[in-house]
Design a protein that fits this description.
The protein has about 625 residues and is α+β, with helices and mostly antiparallel strands. About 35% of the residues lie in helices and about 20% in strands. Bound molecules: adenosine-5'-triphosphate (ATP).
């Protein structure tokens, strides 16, 4: 028996390999199964050009045997096998890929199904094994060879016997240590799961003996273990199947199988792109918000496959954050993988796929909005808030993509409407898109600030999500129409006050006195042009609205931001006569009234009253 040492570089590399390239030990099986699949593919490619070879699909498969008692896992295939030279070159020289060479030698340009390219995957066997034996008989060869290695020390090669062409790799699994559990790799269940996770779409059957409990014949209530060979992998991924052959149900089953969510997806998109970068994808728009969606734990991303082998469970770079709710898979043959297949080398291809996916999702949502309104509203109920965050984040960089997907409740339509619908029915004399922010639709409905706008017959959009007003500030305008809060000081409306004209210069002293008695609680007190039925309301000057003040102050590290509030008084309301009377005859009463009106305005806005006890005492004073 010849004993050979790994070449010096190989020794270092092997050490590196075992200890640092891969982060998950379980990928050893992915690598060895991928090698077997490549070996079968090579026969397949040979058969394509050589009429003497017939490729009978049933004869080609991978077999996994687990021998728990002897701590052995055997991966055998009926692939092309290796002769002595190939065993030496491919397994004795690290970073030499026979598969890459095969592609070159055979000028296989579209041989993307061949997975191997770096010449290192095989050595990942040493992540879990302390001894690896390879028995191989090459295609068209009479002799078989056994290659054996315990790791860095080197390997031995000797002739042996093997009946059929192909390769058998036997791993002697390491003993478990305090820190690491290796025993689990001897569990049928673990092995099956690893195969499903990484190698489900390998094109050839991966067979394995599976133990199931079955009722024992001739007994009642007794069960026995029955061992049966099963094909573990699904082989043809759904995304490679013809769309016309698939029903909605198939897509829904895949969604459930992959545990993308407990809901039924609202929409799926099946893409087969054959451009500069080829890829297949299935994307899902879920119906319900995952329970952890708005938490740090939620990980967005699509499952990424390369030639049917799973590379990444959640590739976040494939989705923009604002479409982070989308689930699904992408499979591309054109990705530049890095050596561990855990990360990608160049992100150029990935970026191009991501851009394409972003546009597809956007168009799909637009179509949903246009053609399946009810479904879109269901989707919007779950993820509308997320889209609005998308508008707000990154300084509005994505507002163009998202603005047409937004919806808000309309005062007129009493349902969700889009900005486009709002703008298209704006009367000619209406300058702004009006909105009112508040806790709920009911509360906003009753806001006195909306009186004038409603009187004019203008529509108001109701903002009930925290993020709404912030997003709109970033959006600034839609189709050249600016957004305007109903609480804003200047509504851009000429009030029709012909019946009860409001002269802003009248009662100036009274308002100045009111302002002084409220000191810095308000910026100004003035006669209102917007109030119709209510005696009082707050409006605001400047950039921070009252609603924003509420939201910002509810945040954990609030800086005590304040809106510049203006107390507006309805001079045509009966109350104003009492106010005037008190101003002329009883200044203490006037101050009492001022305080009450201010607190009423706070209550209407849903703002806290600074001193509720004083407020109720003052009410009692008046009732006396
Ligand atoms: N089961 C097998 N049957 C036939 N040849 C094999 C088998 N396993 C490995 N080989 C040969 O050994 C070479 C090295 O395998 P290894 O897994 O280290 O690298 P690779 O598959 O070429 O590339 P990668 O590191 O990208 O997986 C392969 O290219 C192939 O030529």
């Amino acid at each position: 028996m010849e004993r050979k040492e790994f070449k010096a570089e190989s020794k270092r590399l092997l050490d590196l390999m075992i200890n640092s390239i891969y982060t998950h030990r379980e990928i050893f099986l992915r690598e060895l199964i991928s090698n077997s699949s490549d070996a079968i593919d090579k026969i397949y490619y040979k058969a394509l050009t050589d009429d003497n070879i017939t490729f009978n699909k049933d004869d080609y498969y991978v077999n996994i045997d687990v021998d728990k008692d002897n701590r052995l896992i055997k991966i055998s295939d009926t692939g092309i096998g290796m002769n002595k030279e190939e065993l030496e070159n491919n397994l004795g020289v690290i970073a030499k890929s026979g598969s890459l060479q095969f592609k070159k030698d055979n000028e296989i340009k579209d041989g993307h199904d061949i997975i191997g390219q770096f010449g290192v995957g095989f050595y990942s066997a040493f992540l879990v094994a302390d001894n690896v034996t390879v028995i191989s008989k090459a295609f068209e060869s009479d002799t078989a060879y056994r290659w054996e290695s315990k790791g860095v020390e080197g390997y031995t090669i000797e002739e042996c016997s093997k009946d059929s062409v192909g390769t058998e790799i036997t791993l002697k699994i390491k003993e478990s240590t305090e820190d690491e559990d290796f025993d689990k790799y001897l569990e049928e269940y673990t092995i099956r799961n690893i195969i499903k996770k990484y190698s489900d779409f390998i094109r050839y059957p991966i067979k394995m003996d599976v133990t199931t409990k079955k009722p024992k014949e001739g007994t009642e209530g007794e069960f026995e273990d029955v061992v049966q060979e099963e094909t573990i992998n699904s082989m043809v991924p759904i995304w490679r199947k013809n769309k016309n052959e698939l029903k909605d149900e198939d897509y829904e089953n895949f969604y459930a199988e992959k545990h993308y969510g407990f809901d039924k997806p609202i929409k799926h998109v099946h893409l087969s792109v054959d451009g500069m970068i080829r890829y297949n994808a299935i994307l899902y728009i879920p119906e319900k918000t995952p329970y952890d969606f708005y938490t740090k734990e939620y990980q967005q991303g699509l499952e990424l496959y390369s030639s049917g082998v799973m590379i990444m469970e959640k590739c976040s770079d494939l989705l923009p954050d604002y479409f982070g709710f989308v689930k699904g898979v992408v499979d591309s043959e054109d990705l530049s993988l890095n050596i561990s297949r855990e990360i990608l080398q160049h992100d150029r291809q990935l970026k191009s796929i991501a851009k394409n996916i972003k546009n597809k999702i956007k168009n799909e949502l637009k179509n949903l909005l246009k053609n399946e309104r009810e479904n879109y509203e269901k989707f919007y109920e779950s993820f509308g808030r997320h889209l609005k965050y998308g508008v707000y984040s990154d300084f509005g960089a994505n507002k163009e993509v998202l603005q047409d997907l937004l919806m808000f409740y309309s005062s007129k339509e009493k349902k969700l409407v889009t900005l486009d619908e709002y703008v298209s029915r704006m009367p000619e004399d209406q300058k702004y898109i009006y909105y009112a922010a508040g806790e709920s639709i009911d509360r906003i409905d009753k806001l006195p600030q909306t009186d004038l706008i409603k009187d004019k017959g203008y529509e108001i959009l109701y903002f009930t999500d925290d993020v709404d007003e912030f997003a709109i500030r970033v959006l600034m305008n839609y189709k050249e129409k600016e957004f305007k809060s109903v609480s804003s000081n200047d509504l851009g409306i000429e009030a029709d006050d012909s019946e009860n004209p409001v002269d802003e210069n009248e009662n100036k002293d009274l308002f100045t006195f009111m302002k002084e008695s409220l000191s810095d609680k308000v910026k100004a007190v003035k006669a209102s042009k917007r109030l119709k039925k209510h005696p009082v309301c707050l409006s605001n000057e400047g950039d921070v609205s009252i609603e924003m003040e509420k939201i910002l102050n509810a945040m954990p590290e609030s800086q005590g931001v304040k809106a510049d509030k203006v107390l507006e008084i309805n001079v045509n309301h009966d109350i104003f006569n009492s106010l005037k009377d008190a101003y002329e005859n009883d200044k203490d009463k006037f101050k009492l009234y001022t305080g009450l009106l201010y607190n009423q305005a706070l209550l209407i806005e849903g703002l806290p009253i600074e001193d509720p006890v004083e407020f109720t005492n003052n009410m009692c004073k008046i009732m006396k």
